[in-house]
Write a structure and sequence with these properties.
The complex is a heterodimer of chains A (310) and B (447). By secondary structure, chain A is α+β, with helices and mostly antiparallel strands. In chain A, 29% of the residues lie in helices and 25% in strands. Chain A folds into two domains: 131 residues, PAS domain (Beta-Lactamase, 2-Layer Sandwich), CATH 3.30.450.20; 127 residues, Beta-Lactamase (2-Layer Sandwich), CATH 3.30.450.20. The radius of gyration of chain B is 21 Å and the shape is globular. Classes of the chains: A alpha+beta (310), B mainly alpha (447). Chains A and B meet through helix 1, helix 2 and strand 10 of A and helix 4, helix 6, helix 7, helix 9 and helix 18 of B.
Chain lengths: 310, 447
Amino acid sequence: MYLLKKSNLFIISPAILLILVIFISGCNNKHEDLDLTMYKYRDTKDLVNFVYDASLILKKEGMKSLAYFRNNRKLFNTPDYYLYIYDMKGTNIYHAGMENLEGKNLWNVTDKNGKKITQLVLDALDDRNNPHAWVHYSWWEPGKFYSVPKSSCHFKVETPEGKELFVGAGINYPHEEQEFIRIIVDDAAQLIEDKGREALADISNPVSKYNYREVSVFAFHPDGELLISPAINSTFSQTNLLDCTDEVRHKPFANAIKKLESADGVWEVFMAKNRYQRNLIKKCLYVHKSIMAEKEIYVAAITDLPEPPY
Amino acid sequence: MANNAKHYEYSVNQVPPPGHLLMSSIQHVLLMIMSLSLPILFASQINGTAEFAASLIAFSMLAAGLGSIIQSVGLPFIGCGYLCPNLCGPSYFSVSLSAAWAGGLPLMRGMIIIAGLVEMAIAPIIQKLKKVFPTFIVGLVMAMVGVSVIKASITSFFGLSFRDDAIQSVDIFVGMFSLMVMVLANLWGKGFVKMYCLLIGMLSGWILALILIPEYWHNLAAIKDFPIFAMPAIGPEFKGITFDFKMILPFVVIGIGGSLKSFGNILVAQKISEPDLKEPNFTPIRKGLLADGFSTVLAGLLGGMAVDTSSSNIGLAGATKVVSRWISVGAGVIFVVLAFFPKFVTILSMMPKPVLGASIIFAGSFMICTGLQEVFSEEWNPRKTFVIGISLFFGLSTAFLPGLYARAPQLIQTFFTDPLPTTTIIAIVLNQIFNFDIVLGNLKNKN
């Protein structure tokens, strides 16, 4: 048997790499026009890429691509997420994970908390501030009996036949991306500017898009007085947010407001306790300016911050 | 030393020819660069500006570079005089962040200075504790230094940037490829290939990652706006040094933990540099710990992140048999110079994570095995079985079951932190208890 000399291996390896470089450099990157820089987690980026790829197929091949999706369900039903396609009236056209939903109209379907999922998706698709049309809700896994938190992204597609559809997929137990709260806080700030005080009821409605999982949008005056509470929707305790400190005596709200003198929206990190973890955990606050009754107010939300891997 | 020279490509006091000195120093710098992810992460977590991040990196590099030089150049009262470079200490990260949130960078600087002073104060005490460190406990400490890099190496090997994120097969492939090139170049290579096995593995892994993972190309493209040369800007954040009595305890605990880790590192450096020593020579260890503490103080004064001795670099020295301390000095000089060239630093810090992980696994393997060989190098007895066994059970449990210790009483939480300090403290205490009858017998015989 012919054996390579060990020293030859070190000469051959770079040559193989060079060939690979030439081969790969000739390949196109189909995700080049997709901006994913706002996401921290790979899981999130992978999901958006997954849906985007499917949307490209649908856009190019049109309705005949449905046969391809149906014949290759396994490709579009991974352990982490599955693909679905709806028309703009809420009728399911294709579902890689729950075949029995195909042909049904889910316009009025709600999750266990009462969120009208399909209607939220259609609103998100029209929201320019939400480029990948994120929607957060509770769902269940095919064949299982318990609910799971879910975040889904969507792309609107116009097929060559002129049909408007949307394609999407969601991930169970999603990571809390900072981008998710940026979207809802900016939207809430805009809603207040458009509708005034009336918007506060919409924002504090638990089945609105402004509330999901542990996240809820809240609002306050520049002096720290609450308009919508971040914790308890009650007036029995009047908290002044500017006086609030975190676990290391840092004042996140006071600091954020100082920074807002030179920006419309700011991020502020703070530390919180979690009794199941030895160290304090990091959370972040996003605050955006808004105008209500010609006075400046602040709209905000709090989310987890990605932790280092070890 | 003449005898030592047989074991090595370059022994501890030998000055390699300029070309080899430069290449070996670069090889070590590539390993040290990985710790720069800490100031980058730190700046992002306290919402620092890009200018703040650049200055923090530069000051941390200056502290680590100067620390490496002081540690190895062979000064009369300070520095161990072995190949033992410094880098940003991961164990300081969490407490530094807490200090920065509570009182900004001035408080972080003040508390880092305190931790450094604690390390300096421990240095002469460790020399006095010579008797509590028999050979098998020294070996255990050395092995635990290797164990302590497992988390960092494995998460990097799998390409993870954040906890619980997805692992991609392509990252595992790049990491495996890089690791195999390093190991095979070390096992089969001779001369140049063996000496620079890590460099060859890193570069080939990096090229493969650029080919297979477009993300790395995109990252590299983003650095075109970085300046080639820049002086670190001393912004308002870097002015002043403050202290807070309430933060002293966590920083003292971290200072003690850092000393124990550096103790293990310097022990390994000594073992690989002077293998003929029958028992540890505590004079260079004391001087090394003093240098380690001094470098930490220096980091606080400069406005960088706390520095620590690098286990991975010592492992690399052992694996390549290139243990010249002048390489550590060279790496320190390069680190200091690079602090003023942000573009190069950014490029180097973009080394793919799986490649970095492979490098730490490569170096860490050596640390673990050298330690285990030392543990079992002398005659064994049941007392040692229980000292090693029990300390490993509890020491490793801090890594396996971190959530368990989050609910433990405060005293337990203070001492059961990481595998290295926990195992060391328990082993020392148990060794004294289990040998109490012998000590008592010796005393009786004396009387």
